[in-house]
Amino acid sequence: MKDIVSRLKKIAADKPAGKGGARGAGNKGGWLTGQLLVAMPGMEDPRFTRAVIYVCTHSATGAMGLVVNRMFGDADFHLLLDQLNIEASIDTPDVPVQAGGPVEMGRGFVLHSGEYLREGTTRIDDSVAVTATAEILQDIANGRGPERVMMALGYTGWGAGQLDEEIKNNGWLTVPADDDILFGADLETKWDRAIAKIGITPAMLSGAAGHA
User: How confident is the model at residue 2 (pLDDT cuts 50, 70, 90)?
Assistant: First the structure.
């Protein structure tokens, strides 16, 4: 997973200098790191119908995010640990395995609360970070992991300017993130709850622009 970590850090390093405003408000320069992308009803790509994506990095060189409201088929966290030769204990939590996106679906990412930091962790803001190494799975199995976690296989990626163009073309709505949408177990309602955060309903979206 080291190559993925390197990509995350490279994109993050390209973000404008300075500190953004409130959590989920984006970074100076218009970057959307730390926000949610909510698929508009007219989304043409069926892979992202009603998708809610947390933007881990967004800069001039591209963007990367994790879908937070899709399960990865019948993938099982304990079986995943076994395949990685990580021994689970009786107290190891049963972490749902979600589908982070269609890119490199054999790779794992853990989106988690910001108190957990180690080599290979990319901090997104004070409250959220992402780690793409097997060591975090070992820590979770041994009860030393983050307080809140979202395990994903695969990710969603955009090239330079691609995400910006999709938003201009009314593909995505941008919404502030919160812990319940990122880490909550009720996946079915996340799309509706995300758009409700900015005071709109699905019926209002057909003519809306792709900006919060």
Answer: very low
Highest mean pLDDT, choosing among 30-39, 81-90, 99-108, 192-201: 99-108
pTM of the full structure: 0.83
SS3 assignment, position 3: helix
22: domain CATH number? 3.40.1740.10
Contact 118, 131 (CB under 8 A): yes
Q: Are strands 97-99 and 149-158 parallel, antiparallel or unpaired?
A: parallel
Q: What is the mean pLDDT of residues 140-164?
A: 94
Please check whether residue 36 lies inside any domain of the structure: yes
HSE at residue 103, side-chain half, CA atoms within 13 A, is: 12
Domain limits at 111?
Answer: 2-207
Nearest CA among 110, 107, 111 for reference residue 36: 111
Distance CA(61)–CA(51), nearest Å, equals 23
